[in-house]
Amino acid sequence: MTLRSHPASRDADWAAQGQIEHVHRRPDPWLRMHPEWLVLLLAAAVWVWLGFLLRGSGVHLADHHAPARAPVRAESFDRLLLMWLAMVIAMMLPTTIPHLRYLAFNTRASRTQRSLLLFALGYVAVWLVPGVLVALVPVRVPAGVLAVALLLVGTWELSAVKRRALRRCCRTWPVRYSGAGADASAVEYGLRHGAVCLLVSAPAMVALTLAGHPWWATGALTLVMAAQKLLVQPERWRAAVAVGWLASGVAMAGIAAFD
Amino acid sequence: MLTSQLFAGDPLLERIAAEGSERISRFSNATDPAVVKVQRALLLWDPAVLPVHGADGTYGSETAAAVIRFKVVELQVPPDQLFDDVGPRTVQRLDEIAFAAEQPPTPPRPDGFVRQDVYQLQPEGAPVHPIIAAYAIAVRELKRNAGGPHRLWSHHTQVHGMFPDPNDGLRNQCQHFCWYFLPWHRMYLQSFESICRSIIEESDQVDDETKSTWALPYWDYDRDDTRVLPPAFREPTLNGVANPLFDAARDLGINSPVQFPGEPAPRLARLVPAQTNAAGWFFATPYSSPFDPAFGGTETGFNHAGAPNAIPGPLEITPHGSVHVFIGGPLGKMSDFNQAAGDPIFWLHHANLDRLWEVWRRTTGLGLDPTGSRFVDRSFEFLDAAGQRIQPSCGSVLNLDNLGYGYTDLSIPPSAGGGGPMDDPNRGPQRPRDRRPPRRIGAADEPVRLQDGATEVAFPTDAPTTRGDERFLVSVEHIRADRLPSAEWGVFVQPTSGEPELVGTLPLFGLLEAQRSDAEHDLSYMFDITGLVNRLDAEGRWDSDQFRATLAPVNAVAQDAPPEPEVVIGTIALLIQ
Questions:
Q1: What pLDDT was estimated at residue A68?
Q2: What is the average per-residue pLDDT within A197-223?
Q3: Segment B544-567, tens digit of pLDDT
Q4: How many Cα atoms within 13 Å fall on the side-chain side of residue B291?
Q5: DSSP one-letter code for A232
Q6: Which of B519, B538, B544 sits opposite A19 (nearest CB)?
Q7: CA separation (Å) from B493 to B219, B272, B547?
Q8: Partners of B477 in the β-ladder
């Protein structure tokens, strides 16, 4: 091992014994300590784009005569799919921070960002499946259908499948250190974690899309999903979240009834 | 010349004590290894003197204020001569205080209960001691499962683990692979012990002296004459009736002799030193860490962003996990979270772990109790002797002096390597809590499969171009198997020459629970090999470009044991921090 001499080291006694010569490390730069920065930057950029897109969009609950007005959805399949992917990148990718960091610190330092982007690729690819289905849905969704969707999401929140998926959200998978194996394991990690995330969040994302991405709901749902995935013991708030969805469903059903 | 074990030999403190010109202050030597020693000595002087940061190894404003207070109260320094640095008088007086504290601990208060070594109470071949007989009476009563919840053996078993989760706040609560492991089990023991005591006090089969002094015994298995299950727990009958301390669902050779391959005669299964050794946990610091193997386990944060993997502390691995699977084997109760506490030896095993925690707190861990509210204020629910819900917090159970019980022996285990806590020749420098995650510098490029015999692992590493005070860690991650093996696998680092060096074992306690569909983590271990790397490097036997390890069983497996399952390790890696 090549060791540089540093006589001022606090472990100079070891050096004096001819054992080890120590060199103190400089503090790690912030970016090295937070390798997830590039993916988060990507998500932030998409948020800015969404911000422009979502202005004035979504359900207007006060407008009983146009409960499902959804201008964003009056687009082509391609456009809707792009919109879905943008929502996934903006809303879901930041919730994978623990996994991004685990991956980053467990692959060769020189390939950190490459591995993270491969993870993101795998993660987003999984979300294409519901994305395609959602993009095929008729443009205008009746309020009654939206009410049913909201009630189903509320019920899903209380299901055992969701509870198990929430717990599995913390799970890491083996990653390889270098070479093609590292690339493959990063993509596989993204796919696997994306699949768990689908169980946790896809119903809510679909409901949001059917509602036409109202900006306030988009923001609120982002916070809820981030809290569920990042905070410890997320089961504590499952009931409250479910009540929120069910109440929204009942309100929407009421709107549909008066429509 | 400094005399305390804590200060003696520290170059900076020796120079300061010798009236040298150096000082420790916020601007000079603020992160020197001597700082944590000064902080620990200050905590010996007044346990409340560093209320926020504790002994964190950094001379910040809190430590400076503590030194000022020490100088005013202890050294009577006039206000106009006060400086918030550490000079000769401060070092000399703190050294005297540390030396006094290092003398053998005073016996527990006469009004407190004393937990005694089960082998001291009843050596092999001796009659059953009244303390053990009283425990049997309490267990028999609980096993009737006929009273309120607190008087049910099934309840106490389910408090540790239960499937499906009843979500009642009392059951299925065991804390593993995190920093609540030790305080939660201390609360659990206290609750169980108080209920046993209330049963014993009601019994007309127990004499008054035993009633007034009874405390749960502990099993110290880290001695050559105590490595088999204590005799009272092996006998199917006690005084002519079924022995409530006996459990048939234990591994081969635990209750009665069995044949081991290559041996002339059947014998009882014995723990081997690798399964009970104190060297792994005794020198571990700090109490907790977000990432790496600290004494008490991985911190449970407010969120998962920092550290998605949960790593057990070294005491939780060995001897805790090792003894669990030694008793339970592949199929027994002690190997299963949901049944472990249903074996009466469970409580003596955890009483010993509780004792070892106290040994660490009084030596290596002096002043290193966690101080943050996420730990101190975290509470858990239990039932007391009256059947009422109680909710002790982790902070309330840190200090045994406040809990009304003690242990007959709080000496440093010989297997720690002898000497004092600051005297381990194989350790790297003490360091404060590290907020940097460890980074891999090499890993096996395929899963490692274990079944029979030794398995070798080798992979290239990106050696650091410079060496500072890095920690070297070996991680063994994402372990999976269809069932528990009978063998306990050891991880041996292979030097460039000479014999492999054991760095830890893989008891796999919790493996099946970690594979459940609602488990948050796979089972993973991490071992600190800094001291070993430094030693091998100094001896010219450490290859910094290639990591080589061997995984091999450390224990003998009974001849009639079931075939071993394949154990798959997702990744073995070398990390630095």
A1: 42
A2: 89
A3: 999 999 999 999 999 999 999 999
A4: 22
A5: S
A6: B538
A7: 31, 19, 8
A8: B571
Report yes or no: A250 and A145 within 8 Å, Cβ to Cβ. no
Which token pair is B77?
Answer: 């320094």
Average pLDDT, chain B: 89
Residue of chain B whose alpha carbon sits nearest to that of A11: B429
Q: Say what the pLDDT of residue B168 is.
A: 87
What token pair was written down for A234? 């997320």
Q: Which of residues 155-174 of A touch B (CB under 8 A)?
A: 163-164, 167-168, 170-174
CB contacts, 8 Å: A163 with chain B: 518
B326 vs B346: CA distance, rounded Å:
12
Q: Residue B94 and residue B77: Cα distance in Å, rounded?
A: 15
The confidence score (pLDDT) of residue A8 equals: 30
Selected residues 8-27 of chain A with any CB under 8 Å from a CB in chain B: 10-11, 13-14, 17-25
| Residues in contact with B396: Cβ distance below 8 Å, sequence separation at least 6, in sequence order | B402
Is the ipTM above a cut-off of 0.85?
A: no
Pick the residue of B14, B22, B518 with the most A CBs within 10 A to test the interface with A by mutation. Answer: B518
Q: Does A67 score more than 90 pLDDT? A: no
Question: B445-493, pLDDT tens digit by residue?
Answer: 999 999 888 999 999 999 776 666 788 999 999 999 999 999 999 999 9
- Calpha distance A198→A96 (Å, rounded): 13
* More reliable by pLDDT, A212 or B370: B370
Nearest to A24 among B302, B462, B468 (CB): B468
H or E element: which one contains B425? none
Question: What tokens were used for B372?
Answer: 């943050």
Q: Quote the tokens at residue B475.
A: 């991680």
Which of B543, B571, B572 has the most A C-beta neighbours within 10 Å, making it the best mutation to test the interface with A?
B571
Report which of residues B506 and B75 the model is more confident about.
B506
Interface contact A102, partner B, CB < 8 A: yes
Q: Closest Cα to residue B227, out of B332, B343, B353, B322?
A: B322
A67: which 2 tokens? 């409960």
CA nearest to B193, candidates B156, B226, B160: B156
CA–CA gap between residue A21 and residue B39 (Å, rounded): 27
User: Which residues 518-557 of B are in CB contact (within 8 Å) with A?
Assistant: 518-522, 534, 537-538, 542, 544
CA distance linking residue A218 with residue A97, whole number of Å: 20
Q: For B176-239, where are the E strands, in sequence order? A: 237-238
Q: How confident is the model at residue A72 (pLDDT cuts 50, 70, 90)?
A: very low
d(CA B542, CA B464): 13
Instruction: Return d(Cα A104, Cα A32) in angstroms, integer.
Output: 10
d(CA A196, CA B308): 15
Does residue B286 have a cis peptide bond before it, meaning omega lies within 30 degrees of 0?
A: yes
Dig out the tokens for B575 from the structure.
């990390």
Mutation target for B interface from A105, A108, A173, A199: give the one with most B CBs within 10 A: A105
Question: Is cis: bond before B319, omega within 30 of 0?
Answer: yes
Do A20 and B440 lie within an 8 Å CB cutoff? no
Q: Report the alpha-carbon distance of residue B522 to residue B26 in Å, rounded.
A: 43
Residue A51 near chain B (CB below 8 Å): no
Name chain A contacts of B307, Cβ cutoff 8 Å.
98
DSSP bridge pairs for B389: B383
Q: pLDDT at position B504, please? A: 94
| Nearest residue, CB atoms, A232 vs list B11, B300, B462 | B300
Structure tokens that stand for B38 in this block: 């000064």
pLDDT of residue A17: 36
Distance CA A154, CA B9 (A): 65
Pairing of strands B405-407, B113-115: parallel
Q: Which of B436, B440, B447 sits opposite A28 (nearest CB)?
A: B436
Question: How far off is chain A from B115, nearest CA to CA, in Å?
Answer: 35
